[in-house]
């Protein structure tokens, strides 16, 4: 008997989802939006990051328990950062207390029967503190919008990354981009990885197909001591259709929606 490496065929099989899987992932995206709304509800001056994260996590767990009464309630959480703590994709939650003018990072991750979804947004508390903060936020939202348009069947992952890189280059911001622009969703966890063949990176030549599920999540990280310091990130999940995509994330993004007034 000779061992056979089935990793690549298995990965390719997982990259294209069944109708049942897509319906399940849509439920996860719905619960992400509930977690995001709970973050906004909890944000106020003097509230600790940990309290915001706990409130959001509890809201998602309760909705999973209600919607999937036989599911195991494991590995659902929200990561939430404020101020300069936003300067990384998934920085640890701390007890730092929110202040007016803080840049905020919302990261909601429900896990339902081994299927993982995510919602990530940039927000500000009370007001955007400088023109540079607003400029950076708007640039990243522009990149995000273009990325959403590019996700369609027949497009190569590397070509999406290349075009979005050019947008950052126009504003001299490419050096502040941190990782790929998106990746496959489905059977996934921070503990056991995802399909490496479906990443929106310069080195991935995979062609997008209908029924793939992928994120668009551009992020720039501006260092402490620099004008507009902090992390700016938007994240939607999309189902690729026959002629485009379906954005299954409902939580809005951008300055017109996510300056939290209390």
What can you tell me about this protein's structure?
The protein contains five helices and twelve strands. It has 262 residues and is an alpha+beta fold. The protein has one domain: Creatinase/methionine aminopeptidase superfamily (Creatine Amidinohydrolase), CATH 3.90.230.10. The strands form four sheets. A four-stranded mixed sheet has the order 1-2-5-12. Strands 3-4-6 form a three-stranded antiparallel sheet, with helices on one face. A hairpin with a 2-residue loop joins strand 3 and strand 4. Helix 2 packs antiparallel against helix 3 and helix 4 packs antiparallel against helix 5. The radius of gyration is 18 Å and the shape is globular.
SSE run: HHHEEEEEHHEEEEEEE
In total, the number of strands is: 12
Number of domains: 1
| Tally of helical runs | 5
**CATH architectural category:** Alpha-Beta Complex
What gyration radius follows from the Cα positions, in whole Å?
A: 18 Å
Mean pLDDT across every amino acid position: 97
Identify the strand order in the major beta sheet. Answer: 1-2-5-12
Low-confidence stretches: none
Estimate the global geometry from the Cα principal axes: globular
Give the name of the CATH superfamily: Creatinase/methionine aminopeptidase superfamily
Secondary-structure-derived class: alpha+beta
